[in-house]
Specification:
By secondary structure, this protein is α/β, with parallel strands linked by helices. It has two domains: about 180 residues, Glutaconate Coenzyme A-transferase (3-Layer(aba) Sandwich); about 240 residues, Acetyl-CoA hydrolase/transferase C-terminal domain (Glutaconate Coenzyme A-transferase, 3-Layer(aba) Sandwich). Helices cover about 30% and strands about 20% of the residues. Strands 1-10-8-6-2-3-4-5 form an eight-stranded parallel sheet, sandwiched between helices. The chain has an eight-stranded mixed sheet with strand order 14-13-12-11-15-20-24-25, with helices on both faces. A three-stranded mixed sheet has the order 17-16-23, with no helix packed on it. Strand 18 and strand 19 form a beta hairpin. Helix 6 runs parallel beside helix 7, helix 8 packs across helix 9 and helix 15 runs antiparallel to helix 16. The chain starts with a helix and ends in a 6-residue tail after the last helix.
Length: about 450
């Protein structure tokens, strides 16, 4: 078959491809580095002739032109499944709306409930068999494209080819249009120095992890810091099963810690849903036979996670209340990130043989006025609850690690106050007494 003839027949300029969008359409931009920058700019150029075009994305960096060009929201409405730092700022400006979800259900949302008129995503160049690899976005791509009436692919020559388990590519015969054009090479993302508090939290968690554990390291600076310090530890023969593959896994590999050798599920293979990181990370993932990408319906399904012995999940949060409820995605009513896969891995690691699920946080934060507050609070007042108290496992601060599984309300209060900052413990005890959850 001459797939390149079909490819050439579907080749369009970004402006021609943008004409495939109509007023009222639902358009999907996929995840992170799959953002179609050329198409996005061309679609923004049609602002004045389009109305009520709804666009979904997931952890996209900026700028997103369709959002930036339309402060009124009359022409384009941007929505995200999980806020990146840039998307959080769009939310603050009223230019982005958050869609609550858990990652392992995302495929089912598209399959059974959501409408997609146009799906647009960046992919590596087509191979000689007529297939486009989903690269570092396999976790969310396939079902979105399957449900779309119109499929547009933007070729980004910088994207790596990542081997997949299933649903890792699309054929030219299922594509409506292809866009080509230059893209800036990916830049290294700055990694903050590890603070003394982060180091203390990491050391507390590492004491609970054993050799041959399989790791899920979540989104954010705190889990990344724990991963980096794991690379400096004495642990060995670790595995990877994670929705998000970041540079911490490359650190572990370069340190000789990440071998995947003793995984009882997918032995010898590091499993990921998508990846966000440095050009060096993408180079490591490119055509690497020891790495496999899967849809999140596989990676994040608790039953699958639970079949992995010694599964260790490491995620972060913003605050915890004395009942054990966890808020990881909002400060008050301000959207910060999203639920992501925290619930998936809490449940999965909890049923894993030898598994453990950690949620880590600083014991305090300082507001803009310089006032310090406890991140362990008596009860929530408007914050979004990400993980219910019935599913929370280990909580870690710089003052220690406590296990909340199966505990009573008074045990939870005692244990959480024991890892709160000492300056706030007396007040937390008074609040616990007033809420009738204190015995001592």
């Amino acid at each position: 078959m001459d797939y390149y003839s079909e490819y050439r027949s579907k080749l369009k300029t970004p402006e021609q491809a943008a004409l495939l969008v109509n007023s009222g359409d639902w358009v999907d931009y996929s995840t992170a580095t799959a953002k179609p920058t050329l198409f996005d700019e061309a679609l923004a150029g049609r602002r004045d002739e389009l109305f009520d075009v709804k666009v979904r994305g997931n952890m996209l960096d900026g700028p997103i032109q369709i959002a930036e060009c339309d402060p009124s929201g009359k022409h384009f409405i941007y929505n995200t499944w999980h806020c990146s730092g840039y998307e959080r700022k769009l939310c603050d400006r009223g230019l982005c709306y958050y869609s609550p979800m858990v990652f392992h259900n995302l495929t089912a949302y598209y399959k059974f409930f959501l409408h997609v008129d146009v799906a647009v995503m960046a992919v590596p160049p087509m191979d000689r068999h007529g297939y486009f690899n989903f690269s570092i976005n396999t976790g969310t791509a396939a079902e979105i494209l399957r449900q779309a009436k119109t499929v547009i692919l933007e070729i980004n020559e910088n994207l790596p080819n990542v081997r997949g388990g299933y649903d890792d590519c699309v054929h030219i015969s299922d594509v409506t249009a292809v866009i080509e054009g230059p893209h800036e090479p990916f830049k290294s993302r700055p990694r903050k120095p590890i603070s003394a508090t982060e180091r203390a939290i990491a050391e507390n968690i590492i004491a609970h992890i054993r050799d041959r554990s399989t790791l899920q390291i979540g989104v954010g600076g705190m889990p990344d810091a724990v991963g980096r310090l794991l690379a400096e530890s004495d642990l060995k023969d670790l595995g990877m099963h994670t929705e998000l593959c970041g540079d911490a896994y490359l650190d572990l590999f370069n340190a000789g810690k990440l071998t995947n050798r003793y995984k009882n599920r997918n032995p010898g293979k590091g499993i990921l849903g998508f990846a966000i990181g440095s050009p060096e990370l993408y180079d490591w993932l490119d055509s690497n036979p020891s790495i496999k990408a899967y849809p999140l319906e596989y990676v994040n399904t608790p039953e699958i996670i639970g079949q992995i012995d010694n599964m260790v999940s490491i995620n972060s949060c913003l605050c915890v209340d004395l009942f054990g409820q966890v808020s990881s995605e909002s400060i008050g009513k301000r959207q910060i990130s999203g639920t992501g896969g925290q619930l998936d891995f809490l449940e999965g690691a909890s049923i894993s043989k030898g598994g453990k699920a950690f949620i880590c946080l600083n014991s305090t934060y300082t507001d803009k006025e310089g006032v310090r507050h406890s991140c362990i609070v008596p009860s929530f007042n408007g914050e979004i609850i990400t993980s219910p108290r019935s599913q929370v496992y280990y909580i870690a601060t710089e003052y220690g690690v406590v296990n909340l599984e199966g505990t009573t309300s008074w045990e939870r209060a005692e244990r959480l106050i024991s890892i709160a900052h000492p300056d706030f413990r007396d007040e937390l005890i008074r609040q616990a007494e007033s809420m009738k959850i204190w015995r001592r």
